[in-house]
Amino acid sequence: MRLDVFVIGGLLAAIALSTSGLLMVTINIIMLIFAGLVFGVLMFNLSQFLADRTPLSYRVCYAALVLGILLTIGLGVYYLGTQAIEQADEFWSQLKSAFDQGQKKLDEHEWAKKYVPSVADLQKRLGESGPAMVPNLLNGLQSVAWASTAAFVIFFVGAYAAYEPGLYRTGMMKLFPLHQRDRILDVFDQLQSSLSRWLVGRFLSMSLVGVCTAIGLAIIGVPLAITLGVISAILTFIPNIGPLLAAVPQAVLAFNVSPMATVYVLILNVALQGIESYLITPLIQRREVAMPPILIIGAQLLFGVTIGIIGVMMAAPLMVVIMVCVQMLYIRDHLGDHHPGELTGGA
To answer: How far is CA 259 from CA 100, 125, 198, 250, in A?
Structure first.
């Protein structure tokens, strides 16, 4: 199958967008749409799963799923509205207590007084830099607004894609010549199957990591163990980088318990990261989808530097798409290798 036309067209479009200053904006929009399509695959699979095991039709199951998601979001917002202030006060009081205790322990050492600023010094510096913090505050609000908009875009793109997947599937297929459309349909089927298996593997890994983190923190005696476990499970969606981000609040709160608790928390996170990376995920994805770690890490670095957090989050599913296309269209069709790779199963 000839792909040179698409490659040349893509390069020309990238050059045109780059010269007009719209390349990165376009890439961010494309990544958001891709994230929505991945979410749409998840909604389609869940709706189809319900339709296959109940007498209800796909559309009814889809409507029930959307209603369930909206109700969950609504109940979550209501719960946050009634409980978040209390939880936030407890969380920040724990953090402040941890920093205060850390400051006291550092003050016991002469070298720390020279290099580590005190709380009073930090407050004084914050007061002096108050006017300069306004632009940073505005940038933070802009980031929150962008994140909220991105969440809405991902949700609605996924909802529309899952509601009538055949419409978009047929539309994409008609962009190709008649003699290639059957093969393109095979590629679409394989993409959906591979992304579905990847999603199943990620969610299982996330759930196990979250439960193990909450249990481990509770045994150590770290406060807010369940909350930290949920945060850890969510951040595990970002391979390699997410667990590191999740360990930061755990270590800070553990320091309020004792310095040794912080050491135990770090050991717990290193152990869980190793178990998740080398035992849980390989065992789960052995029957789901196999991804070379080097490709994932490289894609995360590339997309993280050029695109941002959305690029890091979508690096793995995007590599699944790229690998399926390379294995089916290049290795299988162009090179004639009938065993193109594990993702396609020889398709």
So the answer is: 13, 28, 38, 12
